[in-house]
Amino acid sequence: MQFKTENVTDLRPILMQMVQEGKTVEMVDMVLDIIEKLQNETTKLTQMLRWFRQKPYRSSAEIVDYYQSSLFNDDTPADPPKENTIEMPVAKRERTVNGGRKPLPDHLPRQEQILEVDAKDTLCPECDASKVLIGYETSEILDYVPGHFLVQVYKREKRVCKRCETGLVVAPTANKLIDKGIPGIGLMTEILVSKYRDHLPLYRLEERFSRLGVRIARSSMSSWVQIVTEDMLQLIVDRLLEKILTSFLVQGDDTTLRVLDRDHPKNTLLGYFWFYIGDHRYAYVDFTPNRSREGPIRILKTRKQGYLQTDGYAGYDRLYDGREASLTHVGCWMHARRYFYEAYELKDYRAMPILEYIRDLYTIEANHRDCSDTERLTARQSQSRPIIDAIQTWLNTHGDAILPKSRLGKAVIYLRNQWSSLTRFLEDGRLPLDNGEVERAIRPVAVGRKNYLFAGSRRGARNAAGIYSLIATCALNNIPPDQYLRDVLDKIVNHWPASKLDELLPDRWKELHGQNLPPQENIHSS
Questions:
Q1: What region, left, alpha or beta, does residue 307 occupy, with left being phi > 0 and alpha being psi -120 to 50 degrees?
Q2: pLDDT digit string (tens) for 220-244?
Q3: How many structural domains compose the chain?
């Protein structure tokens, strides 16, 4: 007889009826079944309660005390064509109060550059006399060098023939980052790195600049970021995606970011940043307003074949089964381990054997990190495969006895569902055990959203994705992002040819400028 545990209050009349009918055996079976269901539900709720109580105080490092494994012995294996140039943006003049922009503060140091009139224009076309210097057309750019501001003063020569008093000529204007705007390349670099690498919201950056004696409105900085990202850097970001789609291995993962949206009932929506890394060299970040499968499919569907390493998110399935592409899924042991670690944290020590097996897999990988791909594959076949076989034996022996809705039960289900993709690293020495590289690239976003909480608009989130793409790629190639962005923006301002766009990609840029870079230590992600 089927009986729902929530109807316990109705149990007495049913039992009395079964006694009268002489169905004592059926009655005992029913009572035992109800008790088992109640025990399972109690175990599940107890684990959930313990999990949520510990969560605010839990360390993010997933550390296991493997010495406890002696208490839970288990068998282990013996040995384990665009334009010819990149066009400059033309920005609208910023609105100002009281009819004009305030002059830059007098106390700031200034560097003057004299822009001379072309030699052919220094002679009067009427009488061949040399034109006399009568003054300068002056413009100023607010720049920033680490620690202080300075003003770049551009003085354009004005010459005229004194004899004829005609033929006035003025030197050409300097190439500026933003037409009729005041930010210099150094200042723009400082804003980009401070916000997207050092996680400073613009209002804090506004306060910091104010302490240095310069008042820059956050609205102005936001406008500058938009112009520079969309009109200058986006070409490089798009090229990064092209490189990723042709890579041997693509790794992917996602994270959330709140975005202001006036059309949303709550005025904010939960957007997603999708990180993609190709061959450990290129990073691309895409923004979507939700976690629909259309996000990764839109980016990856042109990659018809190849390896894709992700977690078990079902939104990628159409990329594996031939409906959108026929990619080969590579699983992530970091994600698989995490579920068992959560069960271990809840004092379910049945998870310990799997954690030990996974630890041994990573030990083998660490011992062969500097080996060739062929040597690594040989080590995996001889040392890692017995561990994989031991994990499968444990699943077959103990998996069915674990409550599916418990934390450990969910770990077992994930491991079984992802088994073929998790064991794919045994097929090729170039395939990593996990996509931890993507998680390290995501970490700055997780830190940043704790500071600036949300993006101001969907457009702002897309621009942030572009900057994160460049900064993450710099991290993969161990490049200081400030030096990279300063040099690249300078080249673009001075009409870098589109035919040489690949030289602005961080890996190629490092090949050309690496000898001038200071030694770097762990600049990957904070």
A1: beta
A2: 999 999 999 999 999 999 999 999 9
A3: 3
